[in-house]
Here is the input.
Amino acid sequence: MKEKIEEIKKRAQDGMGKITDQKSLEDFRIAFLGRNGAVSGLFSELKNVPKEEKPAVGNQLNQLRDELNASFALMAEKYESSGDEPVARVDLSLPGRARLIGSRHLVTQTMDEIKAIFKRMGFSIYTGPEVESDYYNFEALNFPPNHPARDMQDTFFISDNFVLRTHTTPVQIRIMESGPPPVRAIMPGKVFRNEDINARSHCIFHQIDGIAVGDNITFMELKSTLLSFAKEFYGSNIKHRFRASFFPFTEPSAELDVTCFICCGKGCRMCKHSGWLEILGCGMVDPNVFKSVGYNPEEITGYAFGMGVERIGILKYGLPDIRLYFENDLRFLRQF
Ligand code: DAH
Here is the structure.
């Protein structure tokens, strides 16, 4: 009996080596593991084995049957499919695939940071439409009819009367029109300029405007608010200066410069060797702007400001090219 078992075992091993497809696999199963197969045959002969040898021979048979079943199962995994669909196999020993977790874009991060600072100072957040009428984008903001900013070169015109907003300042008009003073708000959003795309300028970018209107709001308050912002955002050790400037919607107008973060004021390429970087425009709201929203300029005053979000990152991180923001290159984005 023992020899028989060994012989079948050997035949099965040979047979296993000859399996090349589904058909030969099934032939193997019928010959060795089927109801009338070789293993079954051996089991039925067990009754002829002398009583004292039965346990050992039984064990041997069980072992043979289990081994063949296991080998068959392995082979079946390989061949038992319809042929045209690949067998789905999972290798549980492989390390898992890491999932990429999204994160906020640098523009969003910068905007969120600026918003948080002004929120703490009591400003609410408003948004307005990206397609604006000429009235909101220019006229109500005291742009004279022939102002160069209305020129085809800077503005994307949708029609004679509608433009893609060139700044977020028109939202100031919409806020003031919607209710009486006091007003204390910032307005983040996308803006559009008909400019060539190069390292320094883009046709789409983001701005945050701000406005505060009420009784006795002074230039002093403008200075202290914007300085608090600059120190919180850029660090308390920066030096600053307000420089006289011009905007149609503010009078007087100024620009806020801070010491260059790259060279700490010594002078470098970033600050064009001046040691200063301009970070925002600001001023006292022009009386004509108050008139266009129905506020009485004799009774109230206010200040306003506006800054470019991409520009702030360019200055803060020393980015060499504004286009990096919009190319969706993960090698760039992952650094922030
Ligand atoms: N709108 C201006 C621009 O796009 C920035 C600006 C300057 C906004 C002064 C203001 C302001 O609200 O008071 O260049």
Notes: The CA atoms of residues 14 and 281 lie 87 Å apart.
